[in-house]
Amino acid sequence: MSRPCPCESKKTFDRCCEPFVMGRSLPETAEKLMRSRFTAYSLGKADYLAATTCAEERAKLDVEELGQYCKAVKCISLRILSTEAGGKDDETGTVVFHAKLMINGKRMLHREKSRFVREEGKWMYVDGDTN
Question: Among 3, 56, 72, 118, which one is most buried in terms of CB atoms within 10 A?
């Protein structure tokens, strides 16, 4: 049996985010992509984070810097507060969440309204309004 998923879905990692983060399947909803991205942050999977960012924003990313950030942050918990659209038949969606993090020994609450869009049939993170 696998360990609990870092996204706190109450599912095991192998039955939740692992197939997405390891590239075996694609998230069907914006919320599932959001959860898998939180998991990727917690596991230091900067390549997955870059690959699931929309093309326009991905061009601006420094994957090495993102990897360093992942190493510096400890993801404690994730709570999805609301979703709007982002379903299997939608082209756009938003997910509002808060994540408890530890950065440089300081606990912080990161609250974000994330925007997602489909590109070539795949959910992608666009950007988000924070705190």
Answer: 118
